[in-house]
Amino acid sequence: MLHASVMARTTEICPDLRVRLEAARLDLLALFRALDRMQLQPAEIPQRLLHQLFELDADYAEALWALDQPPTSLDLQAMLRDTLAALEQLPESCDQFRALLPRRARATLAQLEITVRSGLDSAEAYSLVPGRSPRNG
């Protein structure tokens, strides 16, 4: 029989949360690497929005870490609330960021993102997640 806190944890956490977090981190990694390959000057990159995307990435990494913690060690409701809110922010934040890039760079960035994203290993979603070995699933 499952312990009550384990049962509560499995019913409270969306079954696809880990997959959504991994995808979000990989999408951001593709954006960051593609942007790094561009010939843009720092002044051409919306720094405030870039910082916001870095913070979202850190939130996703923290949430992936939290999913591997014992159920009683965290406030699951707060973690879920914050994580789901952060996931909801990603599409609009990325759209705003891309819209403020120079017009000449947008198509190139979009193509580079697709190319970079297709070459990423899913284990890279766990980069900088403390104590998490990507090979252990």
Descriptive notes:
With 137 residues, the chain is mostly helical. The chain has one domain. 66% of the residues lie in helices and 0% in strands. Helix 2 runs antiparallel to helix 3, helix 2 crosses helix 5 and helix 3 packs antiparallel against helix 4. The longest helix is centred in the middle third of the chain and has 24 residues. The chain is elongated. The N terminus is likely disordered.
Helix content: 55-70%
Can you tell me the number of structural domains?
1
Number of helices: 5
Report mean pLDDT, rounded to a whole number: 87
Major β-sheet annotation: none
Total beta-strand segments: 0
What does the overall shape look like? elongated
Measured by DSSP, the beta-strand proportion falls in: under 5%
